[in-house]
Amino acid sequence: MHVTLLRYVLRVILNYNPKTFLHSAINMSNSIDATSSVICTDYGSTTLKITSILADGENVTCTSDSAATASTTSTFGYQRLTSVKLSKPDTFIKTPGTKSVISSRFLKMTMDMKSNCADSDTKQSLITIEYFLNIINQICIGFTTIYMNWLCLSTGLTKTSLHAWLVTLGFSFLMAEAIMCHYKSNILTFNFPRTTKTTIHWVLQVLGGGLGITGTLVKCIQKGFLIATVHGKLGFAAFILCCFSMISGLAALYSQKLKQFLSPLLNKTFHNLLGLVTFVLALTAQYYGYETGFFVRKTTEDFRILMKCIILMTLILSSVGPLKSLYHKLMNVKKNYW
Questions:
Q1: Residues 312-327: what's their mean pLDDT?
Q2: Which domains are seen in the chain, by residue range?
């Protein structure tokens, strides 16, 4: 009896077919008292457990795992069961009937896999939306940069036009691209390896920060460091934070060498936060810059409103990647230190 059962179980496992398995299991239950169940994990794998009570009361359990995959038409295929383990069961599951148990388990497995497919479709849709929004953001950055270059160069790079040209290139263009380097939905860098993204990030940040700091200093020297407007106060705050951000960026770049003094996680989290705040202040200052006399004299009110909308879109869409990165870092800090 033992040999017959063992041969039957091995033959079922090596020639596993989902369509005939139910019928075989039901027929087997008529000759020997057997109970079968199917357990579905999160990733669609199934565990087939056949527990049989032999005539002498001894329990034999056959356990095997198989990977289940779902196609786009919601049909399911199963790989051949490759591992067989015969052992005495830890527990014996009593069910009203083999057929009802197997049917309910397969139904639950099907529903779970459909749910996973729906979640995957939702995530893919969100990624597509993020790519689309990033394209819009790149257009906004390009439009602002091209227009400001044309306006400042056509009027001559003197006084305010020099200041506007430098801070636009530094903050609105180079720094915006720098903080999006590690963003997975950035159409310009999404397929680059992480080391390349890091190199592009710090190069753009050094160039952008340098131009932004220079442009702010030019205006401060012209004004004698007399800062009275909202635009001037925000710009000077961005200037100060940009200096600290570049220092923190240098520490983050060599975080592994400094880990005996400061945790790399805390180091990079602080740099992420400081850089994001600097960028927000810089673009907010540029928003109020469109209300200054330089633009009032050279542009119409409707065009200034358009430029304000564009700079706000750039600010919001460029901050999506850094905000997501900051959120994950903060969650890791909370997990490791609280």
A1: 96
A2: 121-333 (1.20.120.1770)
